[in-house]
Amino acid sequence: MIEFVKTKNKKSFVFDGGTIENSNNVLRGTFIILFANKIIRINKRGEENISYEYTNDLFRKMNMCKTNNISERRNASDLEERLFNMILNGDRLDDEIRKNLRQNYLEVLHVDNSKNNINLIV
């Protein structure tokens, strides 16, 4: 069964419930982390370039989160399960999935490359 977990520090995971082990109050198994990053880069000419990064890695046999940090746990929605299976199968994310990730998990990151050094502004 594919499940969803949200932690108290606002991180969200979709995982294969059949692989999850609870060891010392830490959930460990196969999971993905839900996110969408909008990256706004300022180039050396002062121009903005915008790009997006989305959930794309499947973690196997790794620590996911502590059980006492969980604020919500439920069965995955159809969309979350589809996302998990797309990543599991190495498929490219479709527009509906990317749109959902942007609506629900967007974080905007500013990167200033206008000088010789790189400054990350969150």
Short description:
With 122 residues, this protein is an alpha+beta fold. The chain is built from 2 helices and 10 strands, in the order ββββββββααββ.
Fold topology:
Layout: E1 2-7, E2 12-16, E3 21-23, E4 26-34, E5 36-42, E6 48-54, E7 59-66, E8 70-75, H1 78-88, H2 95-105, E9 106-112, E10 119-121
Parallel strand pairs: 5-9
Antiparallel strand pairs: 1-2, 1-8, 2-4, 3-4, 4-7, 5-6, 9-10
Describe this structure in words.
The chain is of the alpha+beta class. The chain has one domain (2-111). It is 18% helix and 50% strand. It has helices at 78-88, 95-105, and strands spanning 2-7, 12-16, 21-23, 26-34, 36-42, 48-54, 59-66, 70-75, 106-112, 119-121. The strands form two sheets. Strands 1, 2, 3, 4, 7 and 8 form a six-stranded antiparallel beta sheet that branches. It has a four-stranded mixed beta sheet with strand order 6-5-9-10. It starts with a strand and ends with a strand. The mean pLDDT is 92.
